[in-house]
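#random but structural
TW: two for the price of one
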Amino acid sequence: MPEEKLSPEKQAEGFSIAREKQAVALMEDYVELIAELTDELGEARVADIAERMGVAQPTATKAIARLKREGLATSRPYRGVFLTAEGAQMAKFVYERHRTLVGVLMKIGVSKEAAEIDAEGIEHFVSDEMLAAFKKFLSDT
């Protein structure tokens, strides 16, 4: 049986959504990491952020500047980077989405280590519908 293809409009919509999600993905990674570092260390210093992200400090500084422009983070001289209420809310959502994906991947037989890495790669591209289905899958099993 031949596979049914998407209409050109639906295909274009899918690509557009993917591009939008790619633009947000990096911000989400930084917000998630800032929340993690704040929980661990009381603050998120640029040097720690850069080290954990595997980037140079100027790259981390540029990303943090974007978070500040978007109203997701603040910083203080000689102190670290802190999330705003909006940034903390985003971090919580990203964390929960990540945990759901790790749970599903492990449930289908993926090792914890691989599940953590794979979830990091796909977590930004999961639709609300798919996330809801994954949550239901986890609660039903």
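TW: number two ↓
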Amino acid sequence: MIRHLKAYFIFCVVLLAAMGCAPKSYVVLMENADGTVGQLAVTNAEGDVLLNKPRTGVDLDGKAGKPYTVDENRIQRDFGEAIAAQPPLPVSFMLYYEAGGTVLTDESKALIPAIIEAARHHPAPDVSVIGHTDTLGDSEANEKLGIERAQAAAEIIRSAGLQVIDWTIASHGERNLLIPTPDEMAEPKNRRVEITVR
């Protein structure tokens, strides 16, 4: 996550310098989409500064100074276009199944509208659907069941009329268990499809 934050803020700084929007180049640490905050280490010939509070910044010109609070107006003025140009973040969902087939649990059926809404918020959605099983039955049959689950989940998304740009539909069968179990053990959390919308 830190690497992504660094890359994003370095991009903003370069963009800001190229546009000539501010007399000094600086970076600002922003919160992630989920509200968490990472850290950003800024180093120059004069020393190091660690940003670990949201909406704090440090100048890049001259020696490393103390971090300072950057108000929303300044953030929008200097980085608003770059922030608005970011694509939506990937969103992941888990759908769980009744034993031995492609029937979703009631809780998972209730998630379908959220999955469709997430795909609608991506201008050119790329959807990955991976089917899984528990370890009941032989591995070959579970591989087949995993792909049947993935295809059924993909069909739910297709039937909503979404224009998905790229699909990945695969089965992991009883490989990559969410809950490690011995062979021939029923585990509801392993009977799942993982859907990621990018």
